[in-house]
Design a protein that fits this description.
The protein has four helices and eleven strands; from the N terminus they run ββαββαβββββαββα. The chain has 225 residues and is an alpha+beta fold.
Length: 225
């Protein structure tokens, strides 16, 4: 587990692809429990340790996740997320170059729980949630391109399904149209940067994740304009 920021109220972790943030039906140990154990051991805390989940990342996605160490921080972080005051930037590797160098995408997303998949429509549909993101192409490689993405709304699988809808599925994302999987089962999407005003100290927090230790990620990151 890689801790990239910690104070008395929050802890920010660089999640590895494949880890789950919160417990699910797989029964695998979630990151929230690993963080609890880390805090318990680091500070030799007796009894239960508080670790509140403020948001989630899909299992195959890596990058920054914020946990709350106090109930006060949790309720205030929840407010920040709900009010759109947490600014998250993602990096994604795609094979197909998007139609525009930068654009704002608006779709209406429906999620089917049965197959855990989201579907994007260009026009409003009953039960679909309006979903907006901004992207720009920030680097080119021989066969792949690196996009920087800002989420305006936060829907299930939003980046994955919206990029797929414009013909640019994320590398390794078989569920949304990639031709082949990544060897480690990840998809090439990273929660790269997070910015918000600290819920207790009111200081600006601006954290960037390290670029994944992977040849393609490293090569594209070197080409960032």
């Amino acid at each position: 587990m890689q801790v990239v920021y910690e104070d008395n109220h929050i802890i920010i972790v660089n999640k590895a692809p494949g880890e789950i943030v919160q417990g699910d039906k797989t029964g695998d140990t979630p990151l929230s429990e690993i963080v609890k154990q880390w805090i318990k051991e680091k500070y030799a805390k007796p009894g239960n340790v508080f670790c509140g989940v403020t948001h989630r990342l899909d299992r195959p996605v890596g990058g920054l996740v914020v946990f709350a160490k106090t109930s006060k921080a949790l309720s205030r972080m929840n407010d920040l997320f709900r009010n759109g005051d947490v600014h998250k930037t993602y990096w994604a590797i795609v094979k197909n170059l998007p139609p525009k160098e930068e654009d704002t995408l608006t779709h209406y997303i429906t999620t089917v729980e049965r197959n855990n998949k989201s579907y994007a429509s260009a026009t409003p549909k009953e039960g679909a949630l309006k979903s907006i993101l901004k992207y720009r192409v920030i680097a080119h490689g021989d066969n792949y391109h690196l996009l920087e993405i800002q989420l305006i709304t936060g829907r299930k699988h939003q980046i994955r399904v919206q990029l797929s809808a414009i013909g640019c599925p994320i590398k390794g994302d078989l569920k949304y149209g990639a031709k082949r999987s990544n060897p480690d089962g990840s998809i090439s999407l990273q929660a790269h940067n997070i910015r918000f005003v600290h819920p207790v100290s009111k200081q600006p927090i601006d954290i960037t994740a390290p670029v994944p230790d992977d040849a393609l990620w490293q090569a594209l990151a070197k080409n960032v304009e």
